[in-house]
Amino acid sequence: MKKLWGGRFSAGTNEAVETYTESISYDRRLWRHDITGSIAHARMLGRQKIIPRQDAEIIVKALKEIAGEIERGEFVFRREYEDIHMNIEARLTEKIGPVGGRLHTARSRNDQVALDIRLYLRDETTAIIGLLERFRRALVTLAEKNTDAVMPGYTHLQRAQPVLFAHHLLAYHEMAARDADRFSDTLKRISVLPLGSAALAGTTFPIDRHFVAKQLGFAAISENSMDAVSDRDFAIEFLSCCAITMMHLSRLSEDIILWASGEFGFIDLPDSFATGSSIMPQKKNPDVAELTRGKTGRVYGSLFTLLTIMKGLPLAYNRDMQEDKEAIFDAVDTVKAALDVMARMIPKMKVKAARMREAAEGGYATATDLADYLVEAGLPFRDAHEVAGKAVAYCISRNKTLGELTMDEFAGFSNLIKDDVYGWLSVDGSASRRKSHGGTAREAVLARLDAIRGRK
Question: What predicted TM-score, i.e. pTM, was given to this entire model?
């Protein structure tokens, strides 16, 4: 079949080359964005009298009809036309004849594909921001139901200090809020119109790029045609946002996996979001969390794919850049799926508050509170730290908790310790005293929940 670019060639494309170079098998998902961009381009060509206005109207009408064909599943995508752009242009020419050939005036596939990717990522970025909001609401919903649940906070995966379970969940809310901010900021770099740059040098036709930008809702137009067709910074930035988001989801997944284990026993996963074993009848596996943790590597791979593709390319466009799409598409699909399933699962998790409290009461998690008590009594913190450490060592040797020490035993460590120390050594007392802004005290957590919900 004759290629739309085949005038210079005397021989047809080898079948193996066609298979190797085609992208229609995956870039067909850009069809809506390709048609949207082409409609704006056609209207500009007619408005500028670069092509007859009547021809522009015919082209626009036919493009809308093609969109309908694709939506209804009637459109035949053909590998020999290589990509979504040529497939649509070929169908356009089939429908309206030579007039269809006017559409590609003053543009190249180079600036056309750059436009399509930007339109696509603008839509998907907006969708991901919406999913992040759903995910954050899920965290808040579970936190609000468990504002009294005390658990051990960890550093180095060792019990550290008592914290509220709600406070722990809201840490992930903060991460997701930053993720949404990053994606929103990335939209500034995505929303730049490359169309009009043509192959690399601009065009001789009197185009109106500002008109096209307004038609497509772009905030700015590119300032250098060579940069515009070869720029994938915006896509790399988008993938970086995806990678950071998945890193946060992976960290939460790791917590969920630990919490759901028999060793921790802090939560019970809903049956509808867990799987069983093919051989062990008793098993209930946290596969959603495990797969999210695993899929994070795929998104990291997409980011490094684009960084590696772009690192050695001379200006301007190179065919290597065709390899950007599968990485982008896979990252989009993975992040959206992960956010969706986590937002569905989290509110259904059953929190085992009694088990959390039991764990918080072990491991000498209130040792810092003993040190703080001594500081309040006038002892310098480093001296107080040493006294508390000796008290912990003493308890370990006698298999006691700090709260089980008698006043006589406390007196052996410091004469500053009085009867009121026991109030400092309870997990509830420990958590409730941490009222500093951003702390784990219940009133601080409730204040943050109010702020998130817009109640204050």
Answer: 0.94
Chain centroid to CA 214: 28
What are the counts of helices (DSSP H) followed by strands (DSSP E) for the chain? 19, 6
Compute the distance between CA of residue 402 and CA of residue 394 in angstroms, rounded to an integer: 9
| DSSP label at residue 186 | H
The first and second tokens of residue 82, run together, are 């290589």
114, 200 contact by CB (below 8 A): no
Q: Which amino acid is at 104?
A: H
Helix, strand, or coil (residue 408):
helix
CA 365, 164, 425 angle in degrees (round to 5)?
A: 35
pLDDT of residue 222: 98
Which residues are within 8 A (CB) of 109 and not within 5 positions of it... i.e. 6 or more apart? 83, 85, 86
- Contact of 348 with 272, CB cutoff 8 Å: yes
Closest residue by Cα to residue 210 from 224, 225, 220, 223: 220
**Does the pLDDT value for residue 455 go beyond 70?**
no
Class of the CATH-defined domain 110-357: mainly alpha
CATH H-level superfamily of 6-105: Fumarase/aspartase (N-terminal domain) (1.10.275.10)
What are the catalytic residues? 156, 277
pLDDT for 120-167, tens place per residue? 999 999 999 999 999 999 999 999 999 999 999 999 999 999 999 999
The domain segmentation of the chain, as residue ranges, is 6-105, 110-357, 360-453
| Residue 193, strand partner residues | 221
CB atoms within 10 A of CB 350: 10
**360-453 CATH pick, 1.10.40.30, 3.40.50.2300, 3.40.50.300, 3.40.50.720:** 1.10.40.30
Q: Strand 192-193 relative to strand 158-164: parallel, antiparallel, unpaired?
A: unpaired
Cβ pair 334, 293 in contact under 8 A: no
Which tokens hold the place of 362?
A: 């072990």
456 CB-contact burial (10 Å; exposed 0-12 / middle 13-18 / buried 19+): exposed
pLDDT digits (tens, 9 = 90+) for 364-409: 999 999 999 999 999 999 999 999 999 999 999 999 999 999 999 9
Tokens coding 233: 């910074």
Residue position matching structure tokens 């802090």: 266
* Dist. CA 259–CA 288, nearest whole Å: 14
Report the candidate in 384, 385, 391 with the shortest Cα–Cα distance to residue 410.
Answer: 391
For the chain, the straight-line distance linking the first and the last C-alpha, in angstroms and rounded, comes to 67
CA distance 259 to 251: 12
DSSP 379: -
